[in-house]
Amino acid sequence: MAVDFGSSLADLDRALTSIEAVIDPDAKRAEIAQLEQEVAAPDLWDDQENAQRVTSRLSHLQSELERVTGLRSRLDDLAVLVELGEEEGDADSLVEAERELGKLGGDIEAMEVRTLLSGEYDEREAVVTIRAEAGGIDASDFAEKLMRMYLRWAERHGYGTEVYDTSYAEEAGIKSATFMVKAPFAYGTLSVEQGTHRLVRISPFDNQGRRQTSFAGVDVLPVTEETDHIDLPEGDLRIDVFRSSGPGGQSVNTTDSAVRITHLPTGIVVSCQNEKSQLQNKAAALRVLQSRLLEKARAEKEAEMNALKGGGSGSWGEQMRSYVLHPYQMVKDLRTEHETGNTTAVFDGEIDGFIDAGIRWRKRQELADD
């Protein structure tokens, strides 16, 4: 069937125009100009935290503006290619145009999903924690697979990551792990991954080859900023130092550099053992603790608002995805119904389809609650 380029180009133009209305390129250019003046100031790095905030914000805005203007430029170029190809009867140009039409449609759709991230903390970087739950050694192995999946997803997108803490299980896999994803909108994007994940497979650890169901939990928190004003009085903290361990309990440090912090008023416990020094581990653990307290405050505020509204849809972070490797191959999101049979690709980090579907689903839930 011949491609209706006119209709397809018009659809992409409408979608991109609506994206531009949300992103507001002119406002982005004005803020970029202001930040460039701040970056040029000779005393910028006298205040390192402020300098990092300014440079990070500038980089994010420049990337966002370049992305949306690049899409507009590609759409204009595609329209010209189609026009020339049709006028001259150039089949090769039209084949190239059809290929670009598919790619551009996917990229515009991905950008459209970004405009749905309008939550209070959605623009921030993310702290992700993965925990093995029910299922014994299979759950520990599953938790490690999920950790690799998210790290590969970040790598595919060119996002930086930093692993803060890995607690290895005795036989295989991990009990838990905490890492940061350093990218704008990482929290808004990955927050739809929060919840319980379920794996069904023939257990490689069962010598009778029986099918095993195991579970792992994923928590996603926003990274805190100066404006959050989270106070951590020394009297509210119990700080313990211990020796880091590798797979199978093997000691990997010659000094007791790992740090565990207990927030006494809430009972929240965090730890970090992957940095080189005790001081670095303490700083990283405090950062995770602040993120947990920030999320706790947000959840309490949301629960209060839901009570005032007479309920609401409740948490969307319960059991949310199944990974079935036997008797068939299928990964399926239980909220959005999005699914794929390519389980290998999913565990290798190809989860954008699930994330995009989750973001759209969450937006519909929020609109239904209003």
From TrEMBL:
Methylated by PrmC. Methylation increases the termination efficiency of RF2. Belongs to the prokaryotic/mitochondrial release factor family. Keywords: Cytoplasm, Methylation, Protein biosynthesis. The modification N5-methylglutamine is found at residue 250. PROSITE patterns: RF_PROK_I. Peptide chain release factor 2 directs the termination of translation in response to the peptide chain termination codons UGA and UAA. PANTHER family: CLASS I PEPTIDE CHAIN RELEASE FACTOR, PEPTIDE CHAIN RELEASE FACTOR 2. It comes from the Bacteria. SUPFAM superfamilies: Release factor. Residues 243-259 form the Prokaryotic-type class I peptide chain release factors domain. InterPro entries: PCRF, Pep_chain_release_fac_I, Pep_chain_release_fac_I_sf, PrfB. This is Peptide chain release factor 2. It is found in: Cytoplasm.
